[in-house]
Amino acid sequence: MSIRIEKVESHKQLKKFVAFPLHLYKDCENWVPALEGDEYDTFNPEKNGAYDFCEADCFLAYRGDEIVGRVAAIINHKANKDMKKVRFGWLDFIEDEEVLQALMDTVVAWGKQRGCTEIIGPWGFTDMDKEGLLVEGYENLSPFTCLYNFPYYGTMLEKLGYVKDVDWTQSILLLTDEMPPSYQFAHLIEERFNVHVVQPESMKQMNKQYGMEIFHMYNEAFAPLMGFSPLTDKQIKNYLDTYVPILDKDFVAVAVNGEDKPIGFLFCVPSLSKAVKKANGRLFPFGFIHILKALKKNDTLEALIIGVDPKYQSCGIPLLMFKYLHENCIKRGVDKIILNPQLEENYKVQSLYSDYHTEPFMRRRAYKKAI
Amino acid sequence: MEREKVFEELKGILKLIKPSSDFTNVNEDSQLVRDVGLDSLTILLLSLAIENKFGFKFEGTPKFETVGQVIDYICSNATTINP
């Protein structure tokens, strides 16, 4: 039976689009669903500020009446500089080459209609979305903030002529009570560069005082990275209102200079993977209980993002932030941090962890193909 | 300032930065990255610890390749050795 592709145009279809992976991965113990509400918000132009500079459509693949795959086609006009690239994301499909071919042909045609000459992915709208197909580390429980997929995804994409664009490596950092020797020099960094890590009373206060400036600095610090498009103030406000208040001040380090201006930030969150899996991606009726418990007591953190003002990038600022985080981890019984994926050639970031015991955790890959 | 004394102080600082490393074979020709095993962070820590120990400030970012070059700089700029 041939594959039929349907564009998602109604809420009913979007519901099917969001729910498809729950069926596909129902027996996969290491896959972790996204929060259902987040997925709806992502594809709501009124809630997702990325729609101000992106266009996107979602598609479902059917064989008969059965959904057998899904994919989103996205163009990020800000990130497209010298080339017109169409992104594919939210790619999920049963192990069937015909299904993948139909899905990818759809994205290619969609991109070509808009003048694109290359397809890349999996990428989201911006760097704040999940990106990169899992190619190593299937034996590990997926971080809540990252993609997880069956191993056949990559193999089948490669059969269709997709080649590696870039890899992200991801490590797990194993903490002990023993502090790295470098911490004893933290005071010298503070004195020499007139910087320190703030000790906020609450996330609310941190958010109000530094929130907007932190994300402006993020835009500046990440500008040179591949596929990056700066966040708009509307997007920043959304992140500050929606996500930052649920962060825990013990796991958020903000470094400031003598003028109390943020010059570095490190955001970590207690791992929600087990809780979200138990909740099956739903906050209600009882999913939020698992999530609240995981936020309060957890032995594992997920590092979401680390950034340093380019003017302070050779001043040891990460050391100050890690010291703050490490001390709080010991206090709170955390002994593992799953680091956020790092572009494999971003040696500057990878060297930040040379003082710690790390182990490889996962590897992700973005693919590309001329169209 | 005595070169020998500066070298000993420098080895003491390196031991603080990398306590698990053995610096007995380090000499003035040793390369900071290749032989001593320093990276960008530990070079920064070394320079801050030198400033603190010898009571001067580097102008700009120091660009040393060998232990001997560090000793040369300290010998021409240091006025004191702090405890």
Give the low-confidence spans of chain A.
none
How do the helices and strands follow one another from N- to C-terminus of chain A? EHHEEEHEEHEHEHHEEHHEHEEHE
The gyration radius over C-alpha positions of chain A equals 21 Å
Strand content of chain B: under 5%
Q: Helical residue percent of chain A?
A: 25-40%
Judged by helices, strands and strand pairing, the structural class of chain B is mainly alpha
Query: How far apart are the termini of chain A?
Result: 27 Å
Instruction: Give the assembly state of these chains.
Output: heterodimer
Number of DSSP E strands of chain A: 14
What is the tally of helical segments of chain B? 3
- The value of Rg of chain B in angstroms is 12 Å
Distance between the termini of chain B: 15 Å
What would the principal axes of the Cα set say about the shape of chain B? globular
Mean pLDDT of chain A: 93
What is the residue-averaged pLDDT of chain B?
90
Overall helicity of chain B: 40-55%
General description of the model:
The complex is a heterodimer of chains A (371) and B (83). Chain A is an alpha+beta fold and 371 residues long. Chain A is built from eleven helices and 14 strands. Chain A has helices at residues 11-24, 36-42, 97-113, 152-159, 186-193, 203-222, 233-242, 273-278, 287-296, 317-332, 347-350; strands at residues 3-7, 54-63, 66-76, 85-93, 118-121, 133-136, 163-174, 195-197, 252-257, 262-270, 300-308, 336-338, 342-343, 357-370. In chain A, strands 1, 2, 3, 4, 5, 6, 7, 8, 9, 10, 11, 12, 13 and 14 form a 14-stranded mixed β-sheet that branches. In chain A, helix 6 packs antiparallel against helix 7 (233-242). The longest helix of chain A is centred in the middle third of the chain and has 20 residues, at 203-222. The radius of gyration of chain A is 21 Å and the shape is globular. Chain A starts with a strand and ends with a strand. By secondary structure, chain B is an all-alpha fold. Helices cover 49% and strands 0% of the residues of chain B. Chain B has helices at residues 3-17, 40-54, 67-77. In chain B, helix 1 packs across helix 2 (40-54) and helix 1 (3-17) crosses helix 3. Classes of the chains: A alpha+beta (371), B mainly alpha (83).
